[in-house]
Amino acid sequence: MQNRPGFTMIEMAIVAGVIALLAAVALPNINFRGFEMDANTRNLQNQILASQTISVQNNKYVLLTFVYCNSQFRIVVDSNKNKGYDSGERRYWKTLSEGAKFVIPPSTIDGYSPYYVTGPGIIGYNNVAATNGRTCSNSPSVWLYPTGSTSGDVVVYLGPASTNPRNQDYRAVQMYGATGKIHVWRMQSNGTWKKSDMQ
């Protein structure tokens, strides 16, 4: 009876040991939190784009209010253009993905004092009753015009929900007022901001 070629148990154990050693070296260098924050940022970017679509399709002003204490933002079809929610107006609540929250970053992209949302496009700060029953005071709001543009340039800041975030865990979503375009920024380990290719 002819022996078939194959691997011995010793050879298989050596290969498994080498793979385990390479994994032990590589895993600490993989930025899992960074990948999670990129996904959360992409989700926020898509939700803002969806809000712009609501504004254009309905030919209405849409009010975005960032309710930081509940990691949510509120979308209001502001029919009477009074920069607030009134009974009868359509509204939607969107929640950030698990693991992310609105944050006050160590520094801002636009040079404004650090806050959850910065920029000249902020049209006011509202006290908003969040869906968990808490009221978030000074929640910044932004208008989306029926053209899809915004009330001005605005930057929204995200960070991990966990404690002790590193600089490289911060993300920012920037809306340009005149065009309504959206760009994503990542903070570098040295505390500077760099525009991302997540467009």
CATH superfamily placement: minor pseudopilin epsh domain
Order of helices and strands: HHEEEEEEEEEEE
Q: Helix count? A: 2
CATH topology: minor pseudopilin epsh fold
Alpha-beta classification: alpha+beta
Gross CATH architecture? 3-Layer(bab) Sandwich
Key features?
minor pseudopilin epsh fold, five-stranded antiparallel sheet, 2 helices, 11 strands, 23% helix
Write the SSE topology:
Elements: H1 9-26, H2 32-58, E1 62-67, E2 72-77, E3 91-95, E4 100-102, E5 117-118, E6 122-129, E7 135-144, E8 154-160, E9 171-175, E10 182-187, E11 193-195
Question: What can you see in these coordinates?
Answer:
With 199 residues, the protein is an alpha+beta fold. It has a single domain, classed as 3-Layer(bab) Sandwich (minor pseudopilin epsh fold). The protein has 2 helices and 11 strands, in the order H-H-E-E-E-E-E-E-E-E-E-E-E. The strands form 2 sheets. Strands 4, 5, 8, 9, 10 and 11 form a 6-stranded antiparallel beta sheet that branches. The protein has a 5-stranded antiparallel beta sheet with strand order 3-2-1-7-6, covered by helices on one side. A hairpin with a 4-residue loop joins strand 1 and strand 2 (72-77). The model has no long low-confidence stretch (mean pLDDT 85).
